[in-house]
Amino acid sequence: MEHIEKKNRGLTNNKKSSNRNRNVTLNLVMTGMFSALLIVLSQLSIPSPTGVPITLQTFAVAITGVILGWKFGLVSTLIYILLGIAGLPVFANFKAGLQAIVGPTGGFIYGFILMVILCGIGAKRKNILVGILIGIIGLLGCHLLGINHYAFLSNISFWKSALLVSIPYFIKDVISIVLAFVIGRQVKKSIENYRL
Amino acid sequence: MAKFLTYSHDDTWIHRLCGATKLIFFILWSVLGMITYDTRVLLAMLIISMIAFYMSKIKYKQVSMVFKVICLFLIINILAIFIFSPYEGTKIYGTRHDLLHLFGKYTLTKEQIFYECNVALKYFTVIPAALLFIVTTNPSEFAASLNRLGVNYKIGYSISLAFRYIPDIQRDFNEIKQSQEARGIDMSKDVSLPTRVKSMGAILFPLIFSSMERIDVISNAMELRGFGKSKKRTWYTARPFTRMDYMVIIFTVVFSIISLVFTFYDGSRFYNPFM
Q1: Domain total for chain A?
Q2: Domain extent listing, chain B
Q3: pLDDT by residue (tens digit) across B96-106?
Q4: Residue A55: helix, strand or coil by DSSP?
């Protein structure tokens, strides 16, 4: 009897470690796949009446945070940024290399790190409006980093920099965040139902 | 959307190089291209990049889309440099040779043209190396090479997955887009912006779902094969280092050292032909 109990205990432990391993594998695959999704979506754009195309880079980063959560969303975004820094043309409009980070709009690229974290945290909230608000705070942080970076490099004032690189694009970025939360929530809900 | 960042199976000596060799070459080449502004070094790098690109037998149509977009943004970048800093070259080289007065404060100088040519050269030295690395390296071999360079194999595998599934996600996007257009969803410039955003949603939703489905299939397959059970793993696609690999690594390291000495021997990373 004791022997059978020991055997069962061993099986339970194996099951636990197997589940843990399953989660690790699943998260690893999701991280890699969402990095690929980030790369592809960054090259897509919607033509707009103003002539400034709406790239899906912001949307892609936000939805990565919403679906993967802040931790794995961060890893996925870091892989994306590191591949870009290494010189692979993965950023919007096939930009690449360290010059993409230290260049005029580089602040927005490393600002994605803050944005994906806050989108991931926002996605955990029950109330979608609170989640979106946290996501928009992340976007605001990303834009502030972008404005500061551009102002520093171009040797111009903060407000002039904001007028050039942030304000014209802020509304479409807010729309991207809202869309990411709406679509991301639906996807997560569907996945949970599918897994059940 | 044209395919980009896609591995092409071929049998040239560049394809036969170990992934780690190509990674070392690519990283050193990129770093060198970013650091130096010495025209002589950049020209040497450009010639080597072009020769390697030619020898790899990569067809231009495989990289044409990426190349065209990069060229477009290079032109925008060069124009932006001139608009925001028309005397950057004069500042760097310490001399001024006017060629043509355009209007207001804008005068075209030899120094500015030379500086902007160097900026363009920097692009054209690194881009062929990046495209060469992407198109000639098998994603699994890329993971193996990262592992060989000391990166944890799980992280390496995650990066190689990102690499491998770019073409698949692109194909999915195109298929979904075409099927939605066949159902009457309009994404042209004729419709309003909200309609276009809505239409994009009709593409993104299935795209994300197809990606999630793929994630499930891959993670199940990996789980069934016992992925992640051990601290180390072997690689089916890993290649051993050959004589050619060692030669390429030695050449890259030696070339990098010589180039850096060449770049910094006079205390500046800019080659100045105006002195």
Answers
A1: 1
A2: 11-137+237-275, 139-230
A3: 787 777 778 77
A4: strand
